[in-house]
Write a structure and sequence with these properties.
The complex is a heterodimer of chains A (about 140) and B (about 200). Chain A contains 6 helices and no strands. Chain A is mainly alpha-helical. With about 200 residues, chain B is mainly α. Chain B folds into 2 domains: about 90 residues, Rna Polymerase Sigma Factor, Chain: A (Orthogonal Bundle); about 80 residues, Winged helix-like DNA-binding domain superfamily/Winged helix DNA-binding domain (Arc Repressor Mutant, subunit A). Chain B is built from 9 helices and no strands. The N and C termini of chain B lie far apart (about 85 Å). Classes of the chains: A mainly alpha (about 140), B mainly alpha (about 200). Chains A and B meet through helix 1 and helix 2 of A and helix 2, helix 3, helix 6 and helix 9 of B.
Chain lengths: ~140, ~200
C-alpha cells in the first residue's frame, strides 16, 4: 500500500517537474530577442536558397560527392583486371619471346652496363643498315 | 537510325532529370520553410543550453538547417524533425569535442586566465527595469537558470533525451531516431535524467 502511495507521489512530482521545466523552456524561447530571431530567419532563408540551388544543379556537378567511392571502385576493378591477366595476355609478360630477349640481355655479362651498351650498338647498326638499304640504288 | 533516336532520347533523359512541376517545388519549399520556422527557436535554445554560447548555438543551428535542406529535403516531411535533431546533436557533440581538444592545447599556452565571474550571469541583466512583473520575471529567470545549470551537469545522452522528449515533445521512437539509439536506451536515459533533475531541483521547485 505504502509502495503504491510512494509511486503515485513520485509520478506526481515527475509530472510537475516535466510541466514546469517545459513551461520555463517555452517562456525562454518566446523571450528570445529580435536580433537572435532575425539571425535565425536569415539562416533559414540561406538554407532554403542553398537547397533550391543544389536541386537546380545539373547531375555532373553533383558527381564529386560520389568521387571517392567511384575512385575506389575503379581502382578495385583495375586491380582485379591486372590480377586475372586480362591485360597481361597481350602485354610484355604474356609473350615468351619477349621474355627470352630480356633474359638474353640481362644474362650477358651478368647484366652489367656492358649489356646495355651492346644493345645500343646493335640498334645503331640496324638503324644504319636500314638507311643504307633505303638510299643505295639497286646495282 | 531509329536506334540513334532511342539512344539520344535515353541520353537526354539521363542528362536532364525530369524536373518536378514548379508548383510542387514551391509547395515543398514552403513546407520546409514552415517546418524550419516552427522549430528554429527551440533548436537554438536547446543548442544554447548545451553549448553555453549564443554564437556557437547559432552556428550549429544554421549548419543543421543547411544540411537538412541540402541533403534531406526530399525525404517525407514526417522524417524531418528527428533528422534535424540528429544533425543538430551531432553538431553540438562535434563542437564540444573540438572545445575539449582546444582546451587541452590552450593549457600549454600562456594567456589570461578565465574569469569565473563571467560564467555566472546576473539574472537582473535580463529583467526589464521597473516593469510591473519584475519580481515574477526574476523568479522565472532564476528558475530557468537553475534548470539550465542542472541540465548541463547531466551526461550528454541524458540531457539530449530529456530535451528532445520534454522540450521538443518527440515521442520515444522519434527520439531514438534523433539520438541514433534504441527506444529502450531512450527510456533509460530519460528516466535517469528525470531522477537526477528531481534530486537537484526538488528543493528549489
Amino acid at each position: 500500500m505504502n509502495e503504491n502511495i510512494h509511486e503515485a507521489q513520485g509520478r506526481e512530482v515527475q509530472g510537475m517537474l516535466e510541466t514546469r521545466s517545459r513551461t520555463l523552456f517555452q517562456e525562454s524561447v518566446d523571450g528570445l530577442d529580435m536580433r537572435v530571431r532575425s539571425r535565425l530567419t536569415q539562416a533559414r532563408h540561406a538554407a532554403l536558397a542553398a537547397a533550391a540551388a543544389s536541386s537546380r544543379r545539373p547531375w555532373f556537378f553533383r558527381l564529386p560527392m560520389l568521387t571517392p567511392a567511384a575512385g575506389v571502385a575503379a581502382a578495385a576493378l583495375l586491380g582485379v583486371a591486372l590480377w586475372t591477366g586480362g591485360i597481361g595476355s597481350h602485354g610484355l609478360a604474356g609473350d615468351p619471346a619477349n621474355l627470352e630477349d630480356l633474359d638474353m640481355v640481362a644474362a650477358s655479362d651478368g647484366g652489367s652496363g656492358d649489356a646495355l651498351e651492346m644493345l645500343q650498338d646493335d640498334l645503331d647498326f640496324y638503324d644504319f643498315a636500314d638507311k643504307a638499304a633505303g638510299s643505295e640504288p639497286a646495282a | 537510325m531509329a536506334s540513334f533516336d532511342t539512344l539520344h532520347h535515353a541520353w537526354t533523359v539521363w542528362d536532364e532529370p525530369a524536373p518536378a512541376p514548379r508548383g510542387a517545388v514551391l509547395e515543398h519549399t514552403r513546407e520546409l520553410d514552415v517546418f524550419l520556422a516552427e522549430i528554429e527557436r527551440r533548436a537554438f535554445r536547446m543548442a544554447q543550453i548545451a553549448l553555453r554560447d549564443a554564437d556557437d548555438a547559432m552556428d550549429v543551428v544554421q549548419d543543421a538547417m543547411l544540411k537538412l535542406a541540402r541533403n534531406y529535403a526530399s525525404k517525407p516531411s514526417a522524417e524531418w524533425r528527428p533528422l534535424f535533431y540528429r544533425i543538430l546533436e551531432n553538431g553540438i557533440r562535434d563542437l564540444q569535442r573540438r572545445r575539449t581538444v582546444r582546451k587541452k592545447f590552450m593549457v600549454w599556452l600562456p594567456g589570461p586566465k578565465e574569469d569565473p565571474d563571467n560564467e555566472a550571469q546576473d539574472p537582473l541583466d535580463n529583467v526589464t527595469a521597473g516593469g510591473p512583473d519584475a519580481p515574477e520575471l526574476l523568479m522565472r529567470d532564476q528558475a530557468m537558470q537553475t534548470l539550465e545549470i542542472s541540465l548541463r551537469e547531466l551526461p550528454a545522452r541524458q540531457r539530449e533525451a530529456f530535451m528532445l522528449r520534454n522540450f521538443e515533445g518527440l515521442d520515444v521512437a522519434d527520439t531514438a531516431r534523433a539520438m541514433g539509439c534504441s527506444e529502450g536506451s531512450v527510456k533509460t536515459h530519460y528516466s535517469r535524467a528525470v531522477h537526477t533533475l528531481r534530486e537537484r531541483l526538488g528543493e528549489v521547485w
